[in-house]
C-alpha cells in the first residue's frame, strides 16, 4: 500500500522550544539534556504533533513545558503508567517519558518495572542526580550509602538501587547509560533509544549543582573521565584509560582490569555485544562505588538490546483479530444474550 | 403415574446454602436462569465468604444464594426464606434464623455426620435433624452424597469428582418441586463441559437422578407452580449488576463511537467487570490489567488523553488509592469513568459483603477543592442505564465521573427488559480538529457556555500543548501560581460541575403522593427494599412516598422542592449515615436516618417498621 504523504517541513531545534521561560536552577544538568533532546528531534523525521512527552513530578519532570510537542506533567511516579495507557491506544505516537531517580525508582518504581517487562515502545529517560532536588535535598534511592543529607544527618543507611541492573531484571529490551556533560554521546543514545522498537531505558547522569554538586564529577570531568569511564561500542573490545592502555577481560564470569601492551593485547579483551544477555548482566553489575580502591570503571553506552513484540502491537492485534474473526460487535446480539423470554 | 398435585403459588424465597466448595453459587445461578425463562419476576442475593475455600464444614465457610421469584412484581430477594436447602450442618445453623416458621428444610444427611456437627459447633451428641428442634419447620432429609454416588456408579471418575455433582442432584430435586424442565441447565452443562465427557455425564446424570428421585419417592405431596409474572410486555433476559454495567459501557462506547480502554486491578466485587469486558475485543474494547490500582486509573488517564474513553473499575480500598490520580483528571479536565463497586469497609473490611460506605469518599476523598460528578445505580439492570449516563456526562462535560454500585446489586440478578440499540441515544463526541480561522494559538482552557474545554488529542497538528497537575492560568492553561487566578480556577471547576444539573433529568417521585407525611429518600441498592416497604404502606393508605437519587453530584435542581414537600424525610442507607450528612448540609432539613451496617441489605420489614414509627 502506498499513500501520498506531504513531506513535513524541515524542523529545527528551535521549533521544539516553547515560549515558556525555562526555570531550572542556573547550571543545572537538565539544560544540557533539554538541548540535546531538542537537537535530535528534528532529525527523527516525526511531525511534532505526533510526539508526546509525559513526566511525573520533580525537577526533571518540568521538561514537557519546554518542548513544543504534546506533553503532560502528571503526578509523582505515574508518568510511566500514564504513558503506557496512551501508547496502548495510540501506537503511532512517539511517546517519551521524563522521570528522575525519585520519581521513576522510588514512588514510581513499580510502574517503571512493569512498563519495561511489558515492553511498550516508549522511551524512558531517567535523569539520575542521586538526590531529591525539588523537595530541597533529601537522599534518593540512588544516593550512595552514608550520604549526609537533610533527612540523613547521620548518613544514609539505605543501600542504593543499581538502575540498569533493575531494568535488566525487569527484562527491559533496551538498556543504556549516558551523561549530561557529554552532549555528543547523549545525542547518540537518545537517537538509539528512539530507534529501538520496544521499551528503552536510558539512564542519564545529571548534575544537581545545588543539592548534590559533583556527584558524577569523577565520570564527567576531564582529569578523571578517561580513567573512570568505559564507553561501550558494539563489536569493540572494552578499552579505557587516557592512553587507551587498559581493558576489561573476563576471568570466568568476573570482569578484571588488565594493562594492555604487556601480557595482554586487545584481542584478549571482552568484546562488547549488545545482544548478549548474560554479559549484559555482568556489565550492569560493573557498578562499584568509585570511592573504593581497585574499583572498575563505570560503563556508558548501550548495555543491551533485544527484540520481542511490544505490548501495544499485541494488544491491538488481539482487537483486530477479534474483529476479523467475529466481525465487529453486534450490540443487539450482545444485549439479548442467549436466553430470553417474551411477555405479551 | 403419581398422584401428586401441582399447587399454584405466587411467591417463593429459596436459599441454597452449603460449604463454599459445594457449588451453591452455580446451583443458585442455574435455578435463577431457569426461573427467568419461565417468566417469573426474580431477584437474587448471592452471599459468600471472602475465603475461596474456608475450612470445610465450618460456619465461616458457608456460601449462600438467596432467590426470590414471583408471579407478581418484586423488588428484593426477600426478607425471609420459604425454603432452605442445607448441604451441611453449618449451612443449616447459619441460615435457620432467616427461614420462615413452617418453612421447608431440605437437608443433606451426609453433611450432618459427627464431624460436620462438631465443625458447626453443635454440642456433643446433638443432631438438629434428629432432636426435634426443627419441629416448627417441614423437614425433608435425604442423603445427597450417597444417592449421587449411586447414580454415578458407572461413570469413570474418582469419588471426589463424583461428589462435585451433588449440587446438580439438589438442583434436579428442586426443578421437580417447582415444576420446571431441565433443558436450560442441560444446555448450560453441555456448553460448559462439552469437551470433558465424563464430567458432563456425571453432572447430567446427577441432575436427572435428583429430579427422578423427587418424582419417585413422593417426598412432597404437592409440587409448586409459580405463574409468569404480570410484567410489562417485552422481551426479557436475566442480568446481574456487573454484567449490566459492562454492557452499559459497551453500549455507550458504540453510541459515542469512542473505544473504551479499561485500566484496572482485580478487586472483589468489581473484577467481574474486567472479566466481562475482556471478552469483547471485537467491540474495540481494550482491557489492561495493571500492576496496581494507581496504574489502573493513570493508564486510563493516558488513554483518555489519547482520545479513547478511559475507564477504571475498583472497590473501596482501590478507590482510596486512586484519589490523587482523580485529582489529576479533574485538573486535566478530560473524560474518565471511575467505577466503584462498594463493599464493607474500612480497610479491607468485608470484601464480599455489601455496604454503601464510599459516598463521602466519592464526594470529599481527595486533596484540594476537587469536585467530581457522581452517578449511582439502584438495581442490577439499572447499572446499564446509569453507567450509560455517567459516560455521557463525562464526555459532554470533559470531566471524570464517579460511578457507584455495590456488592449487592453487582452480584444480584433480576429480569431485564433490555433495550434495542436503535432506541439508545447517540453520545456526541467533539474532538478539536485544528486551529479555526482567526485562532492564532490553541488555548486549551478556553471554555464553552457550559465551561467545557476542548478535547485536543495528540496527533492533531497545530494543537500541541502541555497540560498537567499544576494550577493553570485561566484560558491559556499555562502554569500559574497567581493567587487570584487560583481562586478563579477553583470556582470555575466547581461551577462547571454544578452546571451539569442543567443537563440531567429532574428528580422523580418513584411512588406515592407529591406531598405527604414521609418521604423515603434513597440512593443505590436500597431501591428494592424502599420500594417494597412504601408500596405496602401506600396500600394501607398512608401518605408515604419514595424518591431515589441517581445523580448524587450535582443533585437534580428540583430536589430541594421535593424535600420540602413532606413533613419528614427518612434516609435509609447501608452505612453510618452518609447521604444524610450531605442532604442536611445542602438543604438544611432535619432528615432522619435508618442505618444498617451489617454487610447485608436492609429488609422491607425493618423499613416498614421504621416508617410506621414516623407516621
From TrEMBL, chain A:
Domain Thiamine pyrophosphate enzyme TPP-binding, chain residue ranges per copy: 57-204
Pfam families: TPP_enzyme_C (PF02775)
Keywords assigned by UniProt, alphabetized: Oxidoreductase
Cited InterPro entries: 2-oxoacid:Fd_oxidoreductase, THDP-binding, TPP_enzyme_TPP-bd
Keyword Ligase: no
Lineage top rank: taxon: Bacteria
PANTHER family reported for this sequence: 2-OXOGLUTARATE OXIDOREDUCTASE SUBUNIT KORB, 2-OXOGLUTARATE OXIDOREDUCTASE SUBUNIT KORB-RELATED
The protein's name: 2-oxoacid:ferredoxin oxidoreductase subunit beta
Organism whose genome encodes this protein: Chitinophaga filiformis
Upper classification of the organism: Bacteria, Pseudomonadati, Bacteroidota, Chitinophagia, Chitinophagales
From TrEMBL, chain B:
Ranges of residues in domain Pyruvate:ferredoxin oxidoreductase core: 518-585
Domain of life: Bacteria
Any one Pfam family match given in the protein's UniProt record, by short name: PFOR_II
Transmembrane segments: none
Record-annotated Pyruvate/ketoisovalerate oxidoreductase catalytic domain positions: 21-212
Keyword annotations of the record: Oxidoreductase
Protein's UniProt keywords contain Oxidoreductase: yes
Endpoints of the signal sequence: none
InterPro entries: 2-oxoacid/accept_OxRdtase_asu, PFOR_II, Pyruvate:ferred/Flavod_OxRd, Pyrv/ketoisovalerate_OxRed_cat, Pyrv_Fd/Flavodoxin_OxRdtase_N, Pyrv_flavodox_OxRed_cen, THDP-binding, Transketo_C/PFOR_II
Name recorded for this polypeptide: 2-oxoacid:acceptor oxidoreductase subunit alpha
Organism the protein comes from: Chitinophaga filiformis (Myxococcus filiformis)
Lineage, opening ranks: Bacteria, Pseudomonadati, Bacteroidota, Chitinophagia, Chitinophagales
Amino acid at each position: 500500500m502506498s499513500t501520498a504523504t506531504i513531506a513535513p517541513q524541515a524542523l529545527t531545534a528551535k521549533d521544539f522550544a516553547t515560549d515558556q521561560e525555562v526555570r531550572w536552577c542556573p547550571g543545572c544538568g537538565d539544560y544540557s539534556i533539554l538541548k540535546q533532546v531538542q537537537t535530535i528531534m528534528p532529525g527523527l523525521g516525526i511531525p511534532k504533533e505526533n510526539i508526546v512527552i509525559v513526566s511525573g513530578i520533580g525537577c526533571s519532570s518540568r521538561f514537557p513545558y519546554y518542548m513544543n510537542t504534546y506533553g503532560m506533567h502528571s503526578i509523582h511516579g505515574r508518568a510511566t503508567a500514564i504513558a503506557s495507557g496512551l501508547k496502548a491506544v495510540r501506537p503511532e505516537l512517539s511517546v517519551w517519558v521524563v522521570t528522575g531517580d525519585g520519581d521513576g525508582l522510588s514512588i514510581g518504581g513499580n510502574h517503571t518495572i512493569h512498563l519495561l517487562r511489558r515492553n511498550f515502545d516508549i522511551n524512558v529517560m531517567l535523569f539520575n542526580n542521586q538526590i531529591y532536588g525539588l523537595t530541597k535535598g533529601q537522599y534518593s534511592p540512588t544516593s550512595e550509602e552514608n550520604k549526609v543529607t537533610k533527612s540523613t544527618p547521620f548518613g544514609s543507611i539505605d543501600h542504593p538501587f543499581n538502575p540498569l541492573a533493575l531494568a535488566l531484571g525487569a527484562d527491559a529490551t533496551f538498556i543504556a547509560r549516558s551523561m549530561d556533560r557529554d552532549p555528543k554521546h547523549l545525542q547518540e543514545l537518545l537517537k538509539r533509544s528512539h530507534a529501538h522498537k520496544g521499551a528503552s531505558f536510558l539512564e542519564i547522569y545529571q548534575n544537581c549543582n545545588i543539592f548534590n554538586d559533583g556527584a558524577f564529577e569523577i565520570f564527567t570531568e576531564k582529569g578523571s573521565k578517561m580513567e573512570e569511564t568505559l564507553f561501550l561500542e558494539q563489536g569493540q573490545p572494552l578499552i579505557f584509560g587516557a592512553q587507551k592502555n587498559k581493558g576489561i577481560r573476563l576471568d570466568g564470569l568476573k570482569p578484571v582490569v588488565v594493562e594492555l601492551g604487556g601480557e595482554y593485547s586487545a584481542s584478549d579483551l571482552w568484546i562488547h555485544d549488545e545482544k548478549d544477555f548474560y554479559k549484559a548482566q555482568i556489565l550492569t553489575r560493573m557498578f562499584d562505588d568509585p570511592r573504593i580502591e581497585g574499583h572498575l570503571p563505570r560503563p556508558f553506552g548501550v548495555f543491551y538490546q533485544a527484540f520481542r513484540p511490544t505490548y501495544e502491537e499485541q494488544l491491538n492485534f488481539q482487537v483486530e483479530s477479534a474483529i476479523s474473526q467475529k466481525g465487529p460487535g453486534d450490540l443487539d446480539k450482545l444485549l439479548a444474550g442467549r436466553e430470553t423470554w417474551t411477555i405479551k | 403415574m403419581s398422584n401428586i398435585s401441582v399447587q399454584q403459588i405466587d411467591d417463593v424465597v429459596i436459599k441454597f446454602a452449603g460449604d463454599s466448595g459445594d457449588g451453591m453459587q452455580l446451583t443458585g445461578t442455574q435455578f435463577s436462569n431457569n426461573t427467568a425463562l419461565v417468566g417469573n419476576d426474580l431477584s437474587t442475593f448471592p452471599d459468600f465468604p471472602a475465603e475461596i475455600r474456608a475450612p470445610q464444614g465450618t460456619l465461616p465457610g458457608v456460601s449462600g444464594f438467596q432467590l426470590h421469584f414471583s408471579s407478581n412484581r418484586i423488588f428484593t430477594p426477600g426478607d425471609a426464606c420459604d425454603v432452605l436447602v442445607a448441604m451441611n450442618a453449618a449451612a443449616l445453623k447459619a441460615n435457620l434464623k432467616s427461614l420462615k416458621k413452617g418453612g421447608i428444610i431440605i437437608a443433606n444427611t451426609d453433611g450432618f455426620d459427627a464431624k460436620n456437627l462438631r465443625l458447626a459447633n453443635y454440642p456433643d451428641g446433638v443432631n438438629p435433624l434428629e432432636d426435634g428442634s426443627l419441629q416448627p419447620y417441614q423437614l425433608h432429609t435425604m442423603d445427597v452424597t450417597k444417592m449421587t454416588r449411586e447414580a454415578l456408579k458407572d461413570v469413570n471418575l474418582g469419588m471426589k469428582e463424583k461428589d462435585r455433582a451433588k449440587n446438580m442432584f439438589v438442583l434436579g430435586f428442586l426443578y421437580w418441586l417447582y415444576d420446571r424442565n431441565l433443558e436450560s441447565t442441560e444446555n448450560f452443562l453441555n456448553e460448559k463441559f462439552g469437551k470433558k465427557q465424563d464430567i458432563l455425564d456425571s453432572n447430567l446424570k446427577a441432575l436427572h437422578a435428583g429430579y427422578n428421585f423427587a418424582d419417585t419417592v413422593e417426598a412432597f405431596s404437592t409440587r409448586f407452580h409459580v405463574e409468569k409474572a404480570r410484567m410489562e410486555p417485552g422481551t426479557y433476559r436475566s442480568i446481574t449488576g456487573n454484567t449490566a454495567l459492562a454492557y452499559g459501557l459497551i453500549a455507550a462506547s458504540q453510541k459515542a463511537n469512542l473505544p473504551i480502554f479499561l485500566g484496572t486491578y482485580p478487586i472483589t466485587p468489581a473484577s467481574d467487570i474486567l472479566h466481562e469486558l475482556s471478552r469483547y475485543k471485537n467491540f474495540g474494547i481494550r482491557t489492561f490489567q495493571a500492576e496496581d490500582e494507581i496504574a489502573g486509573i493513570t493508564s486510563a488517564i493516558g488513554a483518555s488523553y489519547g482520545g479513547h474513553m478511559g475507564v477504571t473499575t475498583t472497590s473501596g480500598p482501590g478507590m482510596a488509592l486512586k484519589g490523587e490520580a482523580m485529582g489529576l483528571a479533574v485538573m486535566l479536565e478530560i473524560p474518565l469513568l471511575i467505577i466503584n463497586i462498594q463493599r464493607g469497609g474500612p480497610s479491607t473490611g468485608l470484601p464480599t459483603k455489601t455496604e454503601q460506605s464510599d459516598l463521602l469518599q466519592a464526594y470529599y476523598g481527595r486533596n484540594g477543592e476537587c469536585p467530581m460528578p457522581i452517578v449511582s445505580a439502584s438495581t442490577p439492570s439499572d447499572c446499564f442505564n446509569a453507567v450509560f449516563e455517567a459516560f455521557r456526562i463525562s464526555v459532554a462535560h470533559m470531566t471524570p465521573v464517579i460511578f457507584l454500585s455495590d456488592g449487592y446489586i453487582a452480584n444480584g440478578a433480576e429480569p431485564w427488559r433490555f433495550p434495542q440499540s436503535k432506541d439508545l441515544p447517540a453520545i456526541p463526541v467533539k474532538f478539536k480538529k485544528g486551529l479555526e480561522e482567526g485562532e492564532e494559538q490553541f488555548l486549551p482552557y478556553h471554555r464553552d457556555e457550559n465551561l467545557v474545554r476542548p478535547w485536543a488529542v495528540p496527533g492533531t497538528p497545530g494543537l500541541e500543548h502541555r497540560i498537567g497537575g499544576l494550577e493553570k492560568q485561566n484560558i491559556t492553561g499555562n502554569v500559574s501560581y497567581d493567587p487570584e487566578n487560583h481562586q478563579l480556577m477553583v470556582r470555575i471547576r466547581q461551577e462547571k460541575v454544578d452546571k451539569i444539573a442543567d443537563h440531567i433529568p429532574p428528580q422523580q417521585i418513584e411512588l406515592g403522593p407529591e406531598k405527604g407525611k414521609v418521604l423515603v429518600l434513597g440512593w443505590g441498592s436500597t431501591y428494592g427494599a424502599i420500594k417494597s416497604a412504601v408500596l405496602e404502606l401506600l396500600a394501607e393508605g398512608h401518605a408515604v412516598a419514595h424518591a431515589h437519587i441517581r445523580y448524587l453530584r450535582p443533585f437534580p435542581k428540583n430536589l430541594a422542592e421535593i424535600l420540602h414537600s413532606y413533613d419528614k424525610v427518612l434516609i435509609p442507607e447501608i452505612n453510618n449515615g452518609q447521604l444524610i450528612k450531605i442532604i442536611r448540609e445542602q438543604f438544611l432539613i432535619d432528615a432522619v436516618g435508618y442505618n444498617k451496617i451489617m454487610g447485608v441489605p436492609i429488609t422491607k420489614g425493618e423499613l416498614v417498621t421504621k416508617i410506621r414509627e414516623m407516621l
